[in-house]
Design goal:
Structural class: alpha/beta
Oligomer: single chain
Helix content: 10-25%
Radius of gyration: 20 Å
Number of domains: 2
Order of helices and strands: EHEHEEEEEEHEEHEHEEHEEHEEEEH
């Protein structure tokens, strides 16, 4: 699959790092408003994920990664990008600036078949979560009465959203529970690392909580996870709410979910359902075998890592459980999965 990336921030660079090691992905073009020397340095040395496991260099209008030369442009207007002329079939929109239908459609020209947004989008053709309504979902069978697993094909959806990292984790959690026991309603709190839309020191911000120094406080913040869940599993729309608390760590998030179920369960049954899901959806769902903390999970690429040591059953149908995810590495891996699943229009 021939892929171009617009935006080489935290997610874009993670996609690039992982994509270099996936022979089924051909990275044909890159775009970011930053200069090549800065991008090469940030790609080679990462404060969270360490040094790149391949050679990184740069030249005029290009990055050289593991001996491969990839064209690099510095264009602020997606409508002027040469991605299609360079052979891209799919564009990964990772800049965070064009997560709307109107912005994404600017990429759809010169042979580009689809755009996959690295973030939530209310008016995308589809919001996809591998393991739920895309990718390996077909191996588990479509949910009765629900939408079929996404299949790429001529004339199918062209603007796709990969939800958000917490939305992917929540969708997998809820899907496993609903298939096994039936789900009523839920409340989720995403304990997540600070982001670059916050302030390093106290400075004005439209959200007065996010105006406060990110590395000093636990900061309440909005979350798109519940909205994403409703787009991925329409039967769950309006039945879940989510909020976030940003904490002073650079990576890895913990999803805290309280949920009501439609039948009585035991802890063994709950954990058994997730261990079966880990077998059905390898690489997407995992269950911890040891009690771990966030720093132990940096670089993990599963989107939903259940922590069975924290599960609590407050009543036979009232469950509290926790799942970890690396909000950078796992999300980047799912973007690449979606490129292969949804790309090319074939």
């Amino acid at each position: 699959m021939r892929v171009a990336i617009n935006g080489l921030g935290r997610i874009g660079r993670q996609v690039l790092r992982q994509g270099i090691g996936r022979p089924e992905v051909e990275l044909v073009a890159l775009n970011d408003v930053a200069e090549a020397p800065a991008l090469a340095m940030l790609l080679k040395y990462d404060s969270v994920h360490g040094r790149a496991p391949f050679r990184v260099a740069h030249g005029p209008g290009r990055l050289l990664l593991d001996g491969r030369e990839i064209p690099l442009s510095r264009e602020a207007d997606p409508g002027r990008l040469p991605f299609g002329d360079l052979g891209a079939e799919v564009v990964l929109e990772c800049s965070g600036r064009f997560n709307t239908r109107a912005g994404a459609e600017l990429h759809l020209r010169d042979g580009v078949a689809r755009v996959i947004l690295g973030g939530p989008c209310a008016d995308a053709d589809l919001t996809l979560v591998p393991g739920v309504n895309a990718s390996l979902a077909s191996a588990r069978g479509a949910r009765a009465g629900g939408p079929p697993p996404f299949q790429a094909g001529p004339g199918s959806a062209r603007i796709l959203s990969a939800a958000c990292p917490a939305g992917q984790a929540l969708a997998l959690l809820v899907d496993v529970l609903d298939r096994a026991f039936g789900v009523g309603h839920g409340l989720a709190t995403v304990v997540e690392s600070y982001r670059n839309d916050q302030r390093i020191l106290d400075l004005p911000h439209p959200d007065l909580n996010l105006a406060r120094a990110a590395a000093v406080s636990m900061i309440p913040a909005p979350s798109e996870a519940a909205a994403c869940l409703g787009r991925v599993l329409p039967a769950m729309a309006g039945r879940f709410e989510a909020q976030a608390v940003r904490v002073p760590t650079p990576d890895v998030s913990l999803l805290d979910l309280c949920v009501t179920l439609e039948r009585d369960v035991t802890l063994d049954e709950v954990h058994g359902a997730f261990r079966q899901a880990a077998l059905d959806l390898p690489g997407l769902v995992e269950v911890l075998e040891d009690p771990l903390v966030s720093s132990d999970l940096v670089g993990a690429t599963a989107s939903c890592i259940l922590d069975p040591f924290l599960t609590r059953l407050m009543a036979p149908r009232f469950l509290k459980l926790f799942a970890w995810h690396d909000n950078e590495a796992a999300y980047a891996a799912r973007l690449l999965d979606l490129c292969l699943r949804a790309g090319g229009g074939q």
